[in-house]
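Render this sequence as a predicted structure.
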Amino acid sequence: VALGPGLGYITGSSGVRILDLSEPSAPIELGTVDTPNPACDATRLRVRNNLLFGTHPNYSRGGFGIIDVTDPMNPQSRGYTWLRDVSFQSFEIIDHFAIVLSLWVNLGPRHLRVIDFSELDHPVIVDSLELPDRVSHLAGYGTLLFTGNAEGRIRVYEASALPSIAPRGEHSLDAEIAVLAAGPGVVYAHTYDGGLVTVDVSNPDAPVEVGRLQGYDFSRRQLIAEGNLLFGLGEGIWAFDITAPLAPVPAGSVGRTTSGSLRHMATNDDLEVCVGSYEAEIMIVDWSAPVAPPPVMDGPGTGPIEFMQVKGQTAYAITDTTLQSFDLTS
């Protein structure tokens, strides 16, 4: 799933489907376009400046493709490049470069492949950086890239002089990383033990953990920072207010309305959230208005609530092991 201004892009077994979302409550399908790789479908999509980018994993070798969606009624496939290994889905776009996290079929070393797509019809791999550990997640903000691995290690890389990528600092958490998201001077890591960890990377050479929220299961391993909100995807969507980036505050949740489990999430500048399900359904949520806090029984928790108290615009809930607070201003 990817979102552009008033448009949605959904990938599946029949290529990329383009939807008119100008009226989010009644999306209209405008057309489809075949993905450039005939061997398999795209599994990750990004849209930038009327260009749709996608990675295509394959058991022999993956690839990276470009589709021109300037005219959504007549999308045009542009360039495609095979990778030397299987794309591991994650990628970031910086200027006219794509940085793709990839791995060998035999589960050998991970790499960051740098692709120059300044010639849209002829994207080409121009550099490659072998990573020092078994990285499984990639996030980026500005000219910084961040990787995370199963041992809980976050590494920072400088990408201000592409195609070259230079290592900077690193930080180790005490739990396995499930997914990463990045913002200005900050990285958010969701860990498999239900933690949402905030890491200050304002000094890229010395990242430091500054906070942790517990009790969230983003089982679909997706975390997206958009504007002043951070979204996590599980069997519903959770939002966190990151107006103060180093101190995320729970800002509501929405349960799924699809019959199948949620699979992939995308957002846009209008704070619309689009999620695809395993049953070929989509769910669209408008988060542009203030979000009310979820009912306590529907929200993430760490155990039965023993006591609650409201003071001013804040509610406090005590369980066997934690004190949780909820902002009630909206």
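Summary. Residues 179 and 190 are 5 Å apart (CA to CA). The first strand starts at residue 2 and ends at 4.
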